[in-house]
Amino acid sequence: MAATLRCERGQVRVVAEGGDLLAAAERDEVEVSSRLGNTPRFIRFKGGEAFETADNDGVDRLLPAAGAGLLHHLESRLRYVLLGVLVTVAFVWASVQWGVPMAARAIAASLPQSVHAHADSLVLELIDRQMMAPSRLDATEQQRLQALFAPLAAELGEDPPIRVLFRLASDEIGANALALPGGTIVFTDQLVGLARSDEELIGVLAHEIGHVAHRHAMRRSIQASMMGVLAAVVVGDVSAVSSAVTALPLILTELGYSRSFEREADDHAVDMMRRHGVDPRHLANMLQRLDPAQGGVGRYLSTHPPTPERVRAIHERAAQ
């Protein structure tokens, strides 16, 4: 209701054309919101009623004991504004660089295997329905590859258990391998056909086992959720205009996380291949054959580090 607030002889009254809307309240019985820029102020009464006004100067004159508030004091001085910007930037940078990855790693490691297994089955159901078809590899070939992969798959034991499946992928996916959250690794028929030796397939398997061992799928999901929460905290509301502002940084940050996961999986693959007597350079050869040879922005906006960079790192680590 349209009304007027008055403060007379230590009492606060809210009146309209018909008279008082509320019983007069003592000054110390009402709560006055802090002043922040030109946002409306609220005078709240003990019965739950609230008077709203944009006349900040009037509130400060009638109720001087409320003062302008700490927020108004800070936002009115440039040095505090600049300090606030620096603190915010430092908080966001530290959260993205250390906080979010560390928290995601801890959360993913603490989740019971049943959660990873459930996510695994959901993802597999989705890709089987939308992206892949039953494998056309000969049953004998599938059995041979399962026997070839068995020593590597057994290395993690049951935490989580590794199982390898074969699928015929759509053209969009093509030659690829996917590590699902619960330990399922999917090899596409196209990838098997692209390999020139069993050692190259072993290299790919070792890389995907690295993703499973480090819980990359679940960590990436958790990190994406946490980045959304962080954006909401900093921006205030990820919707409409703010979503357009935050979308690109979030995407680029997630790409950075993905690249770090790929490097971690490559390192795991090199160590695993060495333990099983396989030259890690077979993985490098396979990566070069898989490289779509993108350039420019297309390569930069990739979830994987540039192939030459990965190949160089594998060769360097293999030579150590």
Note the beta-strand portion: 5-15%
Oligomer: single chain
Largest sheet, in brief, is: 4 strands, antiparallel
Low-confidence stretches: 240-248, 293-301
Query: How many domains comprise the coordinates?
Result: 2
Q: Please bin the fraction of helical residues.
A: 55-70%
* Secondary structure: number of strands: 11
Radius of gyration: 30 Å
Family: Belongs to the peptidase M48 family.
Transmembrane segments: 80-100
Keywords: Hydrolase, Membrane, Metal-binding, Metalloprotease, Protease, Transmembrane, Transmembrane helix, Zinc
Pfam family, one: DUF7092
Features:
320 residues; membrane; Peptidase_M48; 2 domains; elongated
Short description:
The chain folds into 2 domains: 4-69, no CATH class; 113-319, no CATH class. With 320 residues, the chain is an alpha+beta fold. The protein is built from 12 helices and 11 strands.
Give structural notes.
Mean pLDDT is 84; it is low at 240-248 and 293-301. The N and C termini lie far apart (78 Å). The longest helix is centred in the C-terminal third of the chain and has 36 residues, at 240-275. The chain is α+β, with helices and mostly antiparallel strands. Helix 5 crosses helix 7 (198-213), helix 7 crosses helix 9 (240-275) and helix 8 packs antiparallel against helix 9. It has twelve helices and eleven strands. Strands 1, 2, 3 and 4 form a four-stranded antiparallel β-sheet that branches. It has a four-stranded mixed β-sheet with strand order 8-9-11-10, sandwiched between helices. A three-stranded antiparallel β-sheet has the order 5-6-7, with no helix packed on it. Helices cover 58% and strands 13% of the residues. It has two domains: 4-69, no CATH class; 113-319, no CATH class. It is elongated, with a radius of gyration of 30 Å. Belongs to the peptidase M48 family. Pfam families: DUF7092 (PF23368), Peptidase_M48 (PF01435). Its cofactor is Zn(2+). The chain crosses the membrane at residues 80-100. This is M48 family metallopeptidase.
